[in-house]
């Protein structure tokens, strides 16, 4: 099994999971053009994508899913509430595009969106080839937000972003995941000192918003204390304005050391481009692009 972060942030979230010839996307929050370009850089054509799994219906997670499904027939898999909310967003985009075309041609046609969708209930499991994808409920302010675990060849990964707060259902899959992609969205002090509107600050910091560095550190400490050090951990979905990769890693390491967990390797998935690749075949953590903080 192989996992690549194509982007991880408010500008778009998208992860490529590969196993035995099966390629799936966890979220599709980039434009269709950017998604196809990043996939090509990984040696994957868009026609080779077997499915897109949506965590929730916010635009930075579903932006191109409707377009890719209409154009290429790729199944979009999510729970019923997420698909309903996503379709509303996709149809709105189709109508806007039809109006733009009408302004050019002088002819307004009735837009219709044909999407290949499949319902995966919250807590459900979907098998594609030798890859098994499981849905786990989380606390985030969308229609019905989930995260996904994926398992193949005896290895397991989990992508846990847009979390809101730690809830008990997340811990069992975390304990058993070789790869953990964990949200570390903001530094709480930076958030409340920022120029963002107060209602937005409160929303981000709420139990239905995003994880702070402190919350992420508490989750990771619990996981390591229970299940040991044998995890690869990526910090993800960092805010451009209210966090910093270097400081996020420094804070997390400080919290780990306070729990006598020393020299634990952490990496950060970049916001706007492919950055990290994990290959389970040889259990090595690899960087697709080398960069310094």
Characterise the protein shown here.
This protein is of the alpha/beta class and 293 residues long. It has one domain: 4-Layer Sandwich (Metallo-beta-lactamase, Chain A). 33% of the residues lie in helices and 26% in strands. It has helices spanning 32-41, 59-62, 65-72, 80-105, 171-175, 188-193, 198-205, 213-227, 245-258; strands spanning 2-9, 12-19, 22-26, 49-53, 76-78, 117-119, 125-128, 131-137, 146-152, 155-160, 179-183, 232-236, 266-268, 276-279, 284-287. Strands 6-5-4-3-2-1-14-15 form an eight-stranded mixed β-sheet. A seven-stranded mixed β-sheet has the order 7-8-9-10-11-12-13, covered by helices on one side. Helix 8 (213-227) crosses helix 9 (245-258). It is globular and about 65 Å long. 44% of the residues are buried.
CATH class descriptor name: Alpha Beta
Q: Major β-sheet, in short?
A: 8 strands, mixed
* Total of domains: 1
| Helical coverage, percent range | 25-40%
Order of helices and strands: EEEHEHHEHEEEEEHEHHHEHEEE
- The CATH architecture term is 4-Layer Sandwich
Walk me through the topology.
Layout: E1 2-9, E2 12-19, E3 22-26, H1 32-41, E4 49-53, H2 59-62, H3 65-72, E5 76-78, H4 80-105, E6 117-119, E7 125-128, E8 131-137, E9 146-152, E10 155-160, H5 171-175, E11 179-183, H6 188-193, H7 198-205, H8 213-227, E12 232-236, H9 245-258, E13 266-268, E14 276-279, E15 284-287
Parallel strand pairs: 3-4, 4-5, 5-6, 10-11, 11-12, 12-13
Antiparallel strand pairs: 1-2, 1-14, 2-3, 7-8, 8-9, 9-10, 14-15
Helix pairs in contact: 8-9
